[in-house]
């Protein structure tokens, strides 16, 4: 409940401060003027010489230095901030509330204390007004808001690197798409423009190739066959497997012997006599 009360109080105070902040100098209205003698200033250790830049997605480190000029100790309860527009129709309009961090750090009388406050932005690049303030509580439990920073800053995007994993994945994806598209175009249209290579040569070359690769037959394995076209020579070397051929197809019928014509004639003469 206490943290929620402080957060609402700090948010309302920042809204009032931004409405009355019409220049880059810190302006205080009577309703927000602190009644406690505590001064605070803010610095940004990682800021550049040309101005404060808030990089999206990266924590922005700020250092708030509190000085207690009171006679009694005070306590820094909360530190928070907000971003406001600076120009256009939405001038003096809140853009984003920043993270509110609870501290509860006591500062003795006449002492100083530095507190680190970090926040992250994720906005479109633009120039906005940054308000940083702290809630200080005195010994009686009364809370006061003290402004630490109220100036214009720049919201920028982080610098891209070639070693970024997202950039590397994007390059690989584009390369794969390019290679696939080129291969499709080549195989569809470009390859048809070139003549196809023949697997074999002319008839004479194929005959030479087949004759070179043929196996020589041993003369002892050759068998003579007499046919209608004259004698021929075949090889006894089997070029196929006969185990799956039926036996009645393998065994050839034997040719019957026919007697010569002279014997037939002699028998016919004997019968006639």
Map the helices and strands.
Layout: H1 2-20, E1 38-43, E2 53-55, E3 60-68, E4 74-85, E5 94-97, E6 101-107, E7 112-119, E8 126-137, E9 143-156, H2 165-190, H3 203-213, E10 222-227, E11 230-235, H4 247-250, H5 261-272
What can you tell me about this protein's structure?
There is one protein chain. By secondary structure, the chain is α+β, with helices and mostly antiparallel strands. Helix content is 26%, strand content 32%. It is built from five helices and eleven strands, in the order αβββββββββααββαα. It has helices at 2-20, 165-190, 203-213, 247-250, 261-272; strands at 38-43, 53-55, 60-68, 74-85, 94-97, 101-107, 112-119, 126-137, 143-156, 222-227, 230-235. Strands 2, 4, 5, 6, 8 and 9 form a six-stranded mixed sheet that branches. The termini are far apart. Mean pLDDT is 75; it is low at 16-33.
Key words describing this protein structure:
5 helices, 32% strand, 11 strands, 3-stranded antiparallel beta sheet, single chain, 273 residues, alpha+beta, 6-stranded mixed beta sheet
Give a quick precis of the structure.
Helices cover 26% and strands 32% of the residues. It has 273 residues and is an alpha+beta fold.
Low-confidence parts: 16-33
Give the strand content. Answer: 25-35%
Gap from first CA to last CA: 155 Å
Number of strands: 11
Major sheet characteristics:
6 strands, mixed
Helix percentage range = 25-40%
Order of helices and strands: HEEEEEEEEEHHEEHH
Shape: elongated
Task: Compute the average pLDDT.
Answer: 75
Q: How many whole angstroms does the radius of gyration measure?
A: 53 Å
Q: Strand pairing plus helix content: what structural class?
A: alpha+beta
Q: Number of helical runs?
A: 5
């Amino acid at each position: 409940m206490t943290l929620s009360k402080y957060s609402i109080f700090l948010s309302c105070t920042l809204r009032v401060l931004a409405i009355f902040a019409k220049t880059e100098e810190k302006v205080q209205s009577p309703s927000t003027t602190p009644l406690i003698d505590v001064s605070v200033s803010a610095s940004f250790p990682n800021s550049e010489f040309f101005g404060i830049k808030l990089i999206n997605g990266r924590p922005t480190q700020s250092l708030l230095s509190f000085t207690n000029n009171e006679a009694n100790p005070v306590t820094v309860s909360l530190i928070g901030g907000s971003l406001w527009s600076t120009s256009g129709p939405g001038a003096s309009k809140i853009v984003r509330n920043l993270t509110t961090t609870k501290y509860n750090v006591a500062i003795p009388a006449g002492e100083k204390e530095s507190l680190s406050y970090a926040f992250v932005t994720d906005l479109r690049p633009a120039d906005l007004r940054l308000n940083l303030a702290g809630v200080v509580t005195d010994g009686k439990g009364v809370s006061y808001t003290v402004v630490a920073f109220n100036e214009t800053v720049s919201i920028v995007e982080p610098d891209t690197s070639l070693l970024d994993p997202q950039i590397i994945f994007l390059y690989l994806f584009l390369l794969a798409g390019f290679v696939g598209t080129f291969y499709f175009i080549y195989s569809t249209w470009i390859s048809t423009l070139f003549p196809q290579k023949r697997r074999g040569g002319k008839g004479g070359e194929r005959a030479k190739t087949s004759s070179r690769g043929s196996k020589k037959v041993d003369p002892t394995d050759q068998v003579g066959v007499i046919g209608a076209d004259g004698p021929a020579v075949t090889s006894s070397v089997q070029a196929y497997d006969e185990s799956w051929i039926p036996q009645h197809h393998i065994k050839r019928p034997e040719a019957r012997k026919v007697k010569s014509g002279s014997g037939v004639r002699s028998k016919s003469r004997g019968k006639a006599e």
